[in-house]
Specification:
heterodimer; A: 296 residues; alpha/beta; seven-stranded antiparallel β-sheet; 16 strands; B: 459 residues; five-stranded parallel β-sheet; globular
Chain lengths: 296, 459
């Protein structure tokens, strides 16, 4: 059993939990993920690691409730425990293998969409700890959905926050901010890392391709085992089929077939689920995020 | 009783069992077991033992069954096999012990598998436990993987006084015994869990949710966690796909995924959270035991199922009993047929599969006649689900994270046949991780050999 030491609500339906998981905390790196199960009958849920403390032996995860399993997880409190917590899975972020001296000459731009801010944080933090300051864009639906802002400010070079509805900082999509920074303000970046809903990563990559800005994305396909056994997470990158759990979850965003990835994400979405999303999101429901299969 | 014929074993009616996940074969009762055991000729030169990968004293235990001394029969089997309740159910006896049975020359072979199952079930139901009288010798061995080879190796080492810890990547121990073989062939709670509990009772520690190669490496287990030797029993879990167009569409699964959802995650049971899209018209590509398992699982989940296999019935690698059961349950066999392309609707969901008919040509390297396409014989099968069951290969995770571990070109770890020793001192391997996908009993045999090899190495 993996004890939950802390459980915090970051935003409506977005939870942060600090979990005691000694083996994972000891060996994990930014970019990797864990698979968790709430109880005996629970689904195996993959979550990218948000933070870790090797001394305390803890790992921090952030998740959004999107269905029955995550809703069940959301009910867990400090003192409760996950029945299973496996990791670290996947390949760590490329830069963790590079010489920090070389990295210091690279200018990083991180683009975090919604709950994607959680997996972006450990990457920015790692770079910061190695003397590299990265620029970060956080995009959220509205002010209430901006998460980990203070934590990110502490480790980022420049932080740019934007909201869909303009309720905080500025109004606009993350692509508007990228365009502003690169085209209008002529800032130079060597590499972009974009993590968020599939549709966001797709459009960020479309833009960065035009800007000749190499981009890494972190995919979140459906998974079962997470160790390369089943192929549920297969994605097409370039002209090859890759397993996101062992070859990824990070890939060259300009080679990822996002349309296929979004279609595959909808495999278990039910009519009821789609109806529920349309009802809860009301007029902001425009579909296309890949979560319910609504129209683009 | 006709001494030439096997005592028939009771099975669930095909129509009934096609709608449930309970065990198909009900096994012998005492009377039936004793009658079947009486057919044994007690050969002076028993061939059956030579057919057994772990050399169980078959005439010995069968004689005890005849005498109704089931406890002694159990003791005899336990000398050689750690998981008789499993093997009695899943071994391909027709090509092992029963295939060599002398009675089988003129009549039908003794139903050795069913007798082994009977004895194992009797022992479990009557609370027979392995002896716990062991003196610890102070040495620690790490076993990676809790499938049949790892469980067997751990059990044998524990019996010799070693402190054994099994590291399992998944959340439930058992390997293929839990994720691969369906409930209706091998019950998980009733049989597998009990066999694993016996190991725990012997003092074996099982740590689940640990992916060796990720959370910790073999090098670290040896240098930092105080293990004196390591056994690699990580199996062959990497699925194979055909590489044909449409294979990434929604509705195409590897058999591993389909079975893991159903067997390990119990998706067939509404009270478990993991979903499965069972499909209504399913094609399973492949002809091995895994293909039969996937097909019969899909059937029980409510689908019309076809097996699509490129060779003919004679070449089907699956266990004879499974093919027989599959046919009884209503699964259609499209033999000498191969998929060419998977067709999808505008939303990317499978709605058909283009196939081509095959004929058998000259034998290939495996000795089997090579299937060759018949030009112009393409046709389309209307489907919503395709399950690729083409075989699996070893996952390279361990070999790529352990210094000095030699592998062959099929990613199998190179290990000595008799001792399981690898190119790395103190590291042993066996089972599918070495040979590629094979059988439970062969994996157990390898686990046994490696336990002996490790014991010699550490003595």
């Amino acid at each position: 059993m993996f004890q939950i030491l802390q459980s915090t609500v970051l935003a409506d339906n977005i939870y942060l939990m600090v979990v005691e998981a000694k083996r994972v905390a000891k060996s994990c790196l930014p970019g990797q993920f864990v698979i968790v199960r709430a109880d005996e009958v629970g689904e195996r849920i993959p979550l990218t690691i948000c933070d870790y403390d090797r001394e305390k032996g803890t790992v921090t995860i952030v998740f959004q409730t999107v269905g029955a399993s995550t809703a069940k997880m959301a009910k867990l409190k400090a003192g409760d425990a996950f029945r299973d917590f496996t990791g670290p899975l996947g390949v760590p972020s490329e830069f963790t293998k590079e010489d920090p001296a070389t990295l210091r000459n690279k200018k990083f731009l991180f683009v975090a969409g919604g709950v994607g801010t959680a997996p972006v944080y450990p990457q920015v933090k790692w770079l910061h700890e190695h003397g590299i300051e990265a620029d970060v864009i956080i995009g959220a639906k509205s002010k209430d959905f901006v998460i980990l802002e203070e934590e990110m400010k502490a480790v980022a070079g420049n932080l740019f926050v934007t909201t869909d509805d303009g309720s905080y900082c500025r109004r606009g999509l993350v692509t508007d901010v990228i365009s502003d920074l690169v085209r209008d303000q002529h800032r130079h970046y060597d590499v972009c890392v974009a993590i968020g809903p599939m549709i966001m990563m797709k459009f960020v990559c479309r833009l960065t391709k035009e800007l000749n800005l190499p981009t890494i994305v972190s995919l979140n396909p459906i998974m079962v085992d997470g160790t390369g056994m089943c192929g549920a997470c297969r994605v097409i990158v370039g002209d090859e089929v890759k397993f996101a759990c062992v070859d990824g979850p990070e890939f060259d965003g300009h080679l990822v077939d996002f349309d296929l990835a979004m279609k595959r994400q909808q495999l278990y979405k039910t009519q009821e689920g789609r109806a529920m999303l349309a009802w809860t999101e009301k007029e902001t429901h425009h579909g296309g995020c890949g979560h319910c299969g609504g129209e683009n | 009783m006709d001494a030439m014929k096997k005592i028939p074993v009771r099975e669930q009616d095909p129509k009934e069992r096609a709608a449930n996940f309970e065990e198909v074969c009900l096994g012998y009762n005492e009377e039936e077991a004793v009658m079947e055991a009486s057919r044994c000729l007690t050969c002076k030169n028993p061939q059956c033992v030579q057919g057994c990968p772990v050399s169980i004293d078959i005439p010995g235990f069968v004689q005890k069954v005849k005498e109704q001394d089931f406890a002694s029969a159990s003791a005899i089997i336990s000398e050689s096999s750690a998981l008789p309740a499993v093997c009695g159910r899943v071994c391909p006896q027709e090509s092992q012990c029963e295939g060599k049975c002398i009675r089988g020359i003129k009549g039908e072979a003794i139903a050795i598998g069913k007798l082994e199952r009977f004895v194992a079930d009797w022992a479990r139901e009557n609370g027979i436990k392995p002896s716990l009288d062991v003196t610890p010798n102070g040495k620690k061995v790490a076993v990676i993987g809790s499938g049949p080879s790892g469980l067997t190796c751990a059990g044998d080492l524990a019996r010799k006084g070693y402190a054994v810890t099994i590291f399992e990547a998944l959340h439930e121990p058992g390997g293929v015994l839990v994720y691969g073989i369906p409930e209706f062939r091998l019950p998980k709670q009733k049989v597998v869990a009990k066999e694993i509990d016996n190991l725990r009772a012997m003092g074996v520690t099982i740590e689940t949710d640990v992916v060796v190669g990720k959370a910790v490496t073999i090098d670290e287990l040896l240098s930092e966690e105080g293990f004196d030797a390591v056994f690699i029993g990580t199996g062959a879990g990497l699925p194979k796909f055909m590489g044909i167009p449409g294979e990434t569409a929604n509705g195409v699964y590897s058999a591993n995924e389909y079975l893991t959802r159903s067997n390990l995650m119990k998706a067939f049971d509404e009270s478990y959270d993991t979903p499965i899209n069972p499909g209504k018209k399913v094609a399973v590509i492949g002809g091995g035991n895994v293909a039969m398992d996937a097909a019969r699982t899909a059937l029980r989940l409510g689908a019309d199922v076809s097996i699509v296999y490129r060779r003919s019935e004679e070449e089907l690698p699956a266990r004879v009993e499974e093919v027989h059961h599959a046919k009884e349950e209503g699964i259609v066999f499209e033999l000498l047929t191969n998929p060419v392309e998977i067709l999808t609707d505008e939303n990317g969901w499978v709605n058909g599969m283009k196939c081509i008919r095959m004929e058998l040509g000259e034998p290939d390297a495996s000795g089997r006649r090579r299937p060759v396409e018949i030009p112009g014989s393409e046709f389309v099968m209307e489907l919503d689900t395709v399950i690729m069951s083409l075989g699996t290969s070893p996952n390279p995770l361990i070999s790529s994270t352990t210094d000095g571990l030699d592998i062959n070109k099929r990613q199998g770890i190179i290990a000595d046949d008799e001792s399981g020793a690898t190119s790395r001192k103190g590291v042993f391997a066996g089972g599918d991780a070495v040979t590629g996908a094979a059988t439970v009993i062969l994996a157990m045999g390898a686990g046994k050999c490696a336990a002996k090899g490790i014991d010699e190495y550490l003595s």
